[in-house]
Amino acid sequence: MSRSRFSFATRALAAVAVLAPLALAGCASSDGATASEGTKDDPIVIGIVSSGEDYWNTFKAKAEAEGIYVELKNFSDYQLPNQGLSDGDLDLNQFQHLQFLADYNVKTGSDLTPIGATAVYPLDLYSTKVSDVADIPDGAEVAIPNDGSNQARALLVLQDAGLLKLKDGGNSFSTAADVIADDSQVTVTPLKADQLPAALQDPKVYAAIVNNDYVPNIDAAHQEPIYKTDADSTANDPYINIWVSRKADADNPTFKKLIELYHEKDVTDGVLEASGGTGVIKDNTPKQLQDILATIEKNQKAQG
User: N or C: which end of the chain has fewer CB within 10 A?
Assistant: First the structure.
C-alpha cells in the first residue's frame, strides 16, 4: 500500500526496547494474553508489514543497548497483525493508521488501542494546467481516488483547500455523493489511483489528488503539488500511523519507552528517508489518538 494511503500500511515501524527497570513482569490483558517482559528469553513481539528498511536496525540496536530485546514478526497480509495482537501472539503492532484500526475493531468487536503516533503521509493536489490552487476556475473538474479510504481523504483535502463543501462537514467515510454542489467550486471524478497521473492530461481535468506512490508518473515538470496537505489538519487525523496494543496493556511503561525510542532523531531520520521525504512525524498523545479512534468508530457504526 502506498505511504500516502496508509493508508493501509504505510510505514511499518517497529520495535523495541526499554530500560531494564521498566521491563514488566507481565501485564494480563482482557483476553488472558500477557505482555512479554522484553528480556532475551522473552522478547517483545511486534507485528510489522515490512522489515527491509535500515531504520529497523537502528531501532533494534538502540533497544538492545537499553537492555530490551525485541522480536519483529513480519506479515504480508494486512489483516493478520491485528488478529495476532488480539489472539496474544503479538505484544504490539505498528503497520496501520487509525482508520484501518477502526475498521478492524468495529468489524470484529475488538478494542485494540492506539498508544503512540508514528507518521502521516500527506495526500496532495497536482495539476498540469495551473500552478496555484487559487487559479482553478469555477466548475473545474478534479479527479480523486475511487477507493473508499482515499476518496474520503481526498474530499477532505479539497474541502481544506476551499474547493468544495461536504455534507455535515464531511468525515473519513464521505463519498462524492456528499459534495454540496451549490456550495462547491469544483466537481469531482473518482478514478482508480493508478489512473490519476494520466487523468491530468485530460483537457477537462484541472487537477487531481494523487497518492504519492504514483507521483513519479506525473510529468516531471508538474510533480510539485499546487496544494500541500497540512499534516496537522483534522482532515489527516484518521490517517495518522500508530503503535497499537491490547487495551489492557495501553499503560505499559515498557511500551511507552519503545515509542520514545522511535521518536529519537536517528530513527525518525531513517523513517523519513524511507518515505522519500513525504512523511511527517507525528507525536500525538495516546489520549488524542484514542479520541480520534472513538470518533471514527462512531462514524463507521453510523454507516450501518
Answer: C
Please give the CATH topology (third level) of the domain spanning 20-121+235-302.
Answer: D-Maltodextrin-Binding Protein; domain 2 (3.40.190)
Alpha carbon 89 to its chain's center: 23
Answer CATH for 124-228 from 3.30.1490.190, 3.30.450.30, 3.30.43.10, 3.40.190.10: 3.40.190.10
Which residues lie across from 269 on neighbouring strands? none
Dihedral sign from CA coordinates of 32, 37, 41, 43: positive
What does pTM read for this prediction? 0.81
Cα 222 to chain centroid distance, Å, stands at 26
Nearest to 62 by CA among 266, 241, 255: 266
> Is the omega angle on the peptide bond into residue 17 within 30 degrees of 0, that is, cis?
yes
